[in-house]
Design goal:
The complex is a heterodimer of chains A (about 280) and B (about 160). Chain A is of the alpha+beta class and about 280 residues long. Helices cover about 55% and strands about 15% of the residues of chain A. Chain A is built from ten helices and seven strands. In chain A, strands 2, 3, 4, 5 and 6 form a five-stranded antiparallel sheet that branches. In chain A, strands 1-7 form a two-stranded antiparallel sheet. In chain A, helix 3 packs antiparallel against helix 4. Chain A is elongated and about 110 Å long. Chain B has a five-stranded antiparallel sheet. A three-stranded antiparallel sheet of chain B has the order 6-7-8. Classes of the chains: A alpha+beta (about 280), B alpha+beta (about 160). Chains A and B meet through strand 3, strand 4 and strand 6 of A and strand 5 and helix 4 of B. Strand 3 of chain A pairs parallel with strand 5 of chain B.
């Protein structure tokens, strides 16, 4: 009983101490550092006074401040090609290269889009060096034996995407004209190493046609020569090219599909029109 | 050529089929490709086709052709020039079979090799139901066969 009373008394005393602390601010005094210049302290005071007077004046003239206009950059439209006709992965590449960097100047823009259209509509492939060519004697619906060959191939689209995505940062360190030409030369280099309908000649013919119709064809040819000679300035492109074959999956290909592929080929068609589009 | 999903072989009604390749002769690279269907509920496996792969060639794509090849092996020198796949040749008084195919190198099969291959072919039926292949054989097209070979890593040299 007594113990309880003592406990209650202690609690009351603690509560009183708390109240006293809260309502009377007990200032803890620190040792003040001696001021080096007496005058400095006085100057500061003066500056503070001046600033406050300025703020007071500003508040009183609020109605004369002009409103800020935001830049309407989201409404800017550019003269672009329709990217939805391209395959999804090539559409991404078009946006990554042309939209993001605003490399929409001619003649690069049209040539780049032309190459992407060509890649999108046709199956270009690179035959795997490690591929076995398996000859198949398969009986068809009429039970006649048809001979065909099966290959292991890489998709040229995927190789090009890998190289450009890997090297785009380094390519952007060049000036715009050179960067544009490097992008085109890279695509053309990979195309020239690909087959179309299992023929190197066909794809080379297509590639030559594309280069000839480009305004800066001499620059492209020069860059292609640099790539062929493994010049140190463009070595990063060749490194990415070799690396692509390690990381990208292969596909099977049967040459019975050649006739169908040729029929569906859309090699040289007119470029579609451009539209005013937002990025 | 969008190829994000793993290729699974299915027949016309959507039943999943599996392939296994059985080595008949490793020196001559002769394999038997067995296409089968597995019914896990009934715990039964049914053969749906058998193909012969020699080196870089699919020699037979239908069960009847595979059985013909095996029987020609079995006959060995009792066969004759009506053989479709194998010719009987004699070299230094020993008879052997020369494979009749359009591959690069000539392949000769000795008597013991032929017997061994025939035995393995018969053993490959153990545990599997053969009735299904006679009733419901799965017929390949060149494109599907290419995909199957690719999936089983038979198209690469490594």
């Amino acid at each position: 009983m007594v113990f309880l009373e003592v406990l209650i008394l202690i609690l009351i005393i603690l509560y009183l101490v708390y109240l006293i602390y809260k309502f009377t601010e007990i200032e803890i005094e620190y040792e003040e550092e001696p001021l080096k210049e007496e005058g400095h302290f006085q100057k500061e005071n003066k500056e503070v006074r001046d600033l406050t007077s300025i703020i007071e004046i500003d508040l009183s003239t609020e109605t004369n401040i002009e409103p800020l206009y935001e830049l309407q950059t989201h409404k800017v439209k550019y003269w672009l090609y329709d990217s939805s006709v391209l395959r999804y992965s090539l559409e991404k590449l078009y946006k990554e290269v042309a939209h993001k960097n605003l490399w929409i100047n001619e003649p690069f823009h049209s040539k780049f889009y032309e190459l992407l259209l060509l890649l999108s509509r046709n199956e270009f492939m690179i035959i795997d060096k490690n591929s076995k060519v398996i000859t198949m004697n398969v009986r068809d619906e009429n039970n006649k034996i048809k001979v065909s060959n099966a290959y292991q191939v890489f998709s040229t689209n995927e190789i090009i995407q890998y190289i450009i995505n890997k090297c785009i940062k380094k390519i952007k360190t060049f000036n715009e004209k050179d960067a544009n030409n490097i992008i085109l030369s890279t695509i053309i280099m990979v195309l020239s190493k690909s087959v179309y309908c299992l023929s190197y000649d066909l794809s080379k013919g297509i590639v030559n046609n594309i280069i000839d119709t480009y305004e800066f064809s001499k620059d492209i040819e020069y860059l292609l020569k640099l790539l062929e000679d493994k010049d140190s300035r463009l070595f990063f492109i060749l490194e990415a090219f070799d690396e692509a074959f390690i990381f990208i999956d292969t596909y099977p290909y049967n040459d019975i599909e050649i006739k169908q592929q040729f029929q569906e080929s859309q090699l040289f068609q007119e470029l579609p029109k451009k539209f005013f589009l937002e990025i | 050529m969008a190829h994000d999903q793993i290729f699974t072989l299915t027949d016309e009604i959507g039943v999943e089929l599996q392939i296994r390749h059985i080595a008949l002769n490793l020196d001559k690279e002769i394999y038997l490709l067995q296409v089968f269907e597995e019914n896990k509920k009934l715990n039964k496996k049914y053969i749906r086709n058998e193909l012969v792969l020699i080196g870089n060639q699919i020699l037979t794509s239908r069960f009847c052709d595979t059985v013909l090849f095996m029987e020609e092996l079995h006959l060995f020198d009792i066969g004759n020039d009506q053989n479709k796949y194998l010719d009987i040749k004699e070299y230094k008084n020993t008879k052997n079979l020369k494979l009749n195919y359009s591959g690069d190198s000539a392949i000769f099969i000795s008597k013991s090799e032929a017997k061994a291959m025939y035995k393995i072919f018969n053993l490959s039926f153990l545990g599997y139901s053969v009735a299904a292949v006679l009733e419901n054989e799965f017929k390949f097209t060149p494109q599907i066969l290419s995909k199957v070979l690719h999936e089983n890593k038979l198209l690469s040299k490594e």
